[in-house]
Structure formats: C-alpha cells, structure tokens
Design a protein that fits this description.
This is GOLD domain-containing protein. It comes from Croceitalea vernalis. The chain is mainly beta. The longest helix is centred in the first third of the chain and has 15 residues. The chain is built from 1 helix and 9 strands, in the order H-E-E-E-E-E-E-E-E-E. Strands 1, 3, 5, 6, 8 and 9 form a 6-stranded mixed β-sheet that branches. The chain has a 3-stranded antiparallel β-sheet with strand order 2-4-7, with no helix packed on it. It has one domain: Immunoglobulin-like (Sandwich), CATH 2.60.40.
Length: 142
C-alpha cells in the first residue's frame, strides 16, 4: 500500500513539471526608484506603528513597484529605498508618473531617528537622499 502511494506521488510530481518552460523569454531586474517626497509625522511615539507615505517616480511602463528596503545604519539612522522591477520589453513607454505608496515604521528607541530616503544618483553616480530627523516621544506621552 505504501509503495503504491509513493509511486503515485512520484508520478504527480513528475507531471506537475511537465510543460514548464524554465527558459522563459521574460527577463527582469530590480531597480531603485527615485523618491520625490515623503509625508512624516512631526514626531514618533515609541513602540507605536506609524504609516509613512512616500511618493516615488515611475520612469516607464515596464517598471513596477515591488516594495521598500529599509537599511539600519548607525544608532537610529535608517535608509529607505523604493524597489521596482524592470521588465525588459521592446514596448516600454517613457513616463514621468509620481505614485504614492506607504509602509509601516516603528520607532523602538527614545531620542531622534534620521530617515534617509533614496532620491537618485548625483552626476558622479553617488546616491543622494532626502533626509529627515524625527524626534521620538516616550510611550504614553502625547
């Protein structure tokens, strides 16, 4: 009985891959999207979740928003990058759309947070950031 179940499972696995084309013609890469503006509260409350609205630039019809990467720096410094996927196609149309997305941020430490939002590269190819310093109120203090 067990041998029949194992054979049946093997057949199901083999046929589940039948017809899959691993060498698909679709080719994509992840890209950093330029952040053009950010809506932040005047202060964060410690251990509370805060919704941060970010407006980024969508450069063409082949680039799609995927989410945000948040990188921890020294102490309370965070660098935030909007991530997109660029699907290589011949029919991409250039555009200059500003689109808003949001993410949740929780300040765990008292003091101030420095939030750096990627806004593109300078003439030398070095990343540039929109930088905001936001104070943190202790829990229970309004």
């Amino acid at each position: 009985m067990i041998k029949k179940v194992i054979v049946l499972l093997c057949v199901v696995v083999i046929f589940s891959f039948y017809g899959c084309d691993i060498s698909s013609e679709e080719n994509f890469q992840f890209v950093n999207l330029k952040i053009v503006s950010v809506e932040l509260p005047e202060s964060f409350q410690q251990n509370a979740s805060h919704n941060i609205q970010v407006t980024y630039e969508r450069p063409d019809t082949c680039t799609y928003f995927e989410g945000f990467d948040v990188f921890e720096g020294e102490l309370n410094t965070r660098s935030i990058v909007a991530i997109g996927s660029f699907l290589e196609q011949e029919d991409c149309v250039l555009m200059d759309d500003d689109i808003t997305a949001s993410f949740e941020f929780t300040a765990l430490n008292i003091g101030t947070y420095t939030l750096r939002f990627y806004s593109g590269n300078d003439a030398n190819g070095n990343p540039e950031y929109l930088e905001y310093i936001v104070p943190v109120r202790p829990e229970g203090v309004n």
